[in-house]
Amino acid sequence: MQITKKPLLRIEAFQEKRGIRLEGRGPAAPLARPILERMNRIFADEKPIISSP
Length: 53
Prior knowledge:
The chain is an alpha+beta fold. Helices cover 32% and strands 34% of the residues.
């Protein structure tokens, strides 16, 4: 799923069995990589919300 699309950077989210993974594409992706990797580590530790009526 595409999160954002700018001329130099596109961020996409992918669902994996461990959670959500963000990935950057485009010329500015190497600059965004450290931030996205940190966010991916945070998402990996998140637990899903259990909702009940």
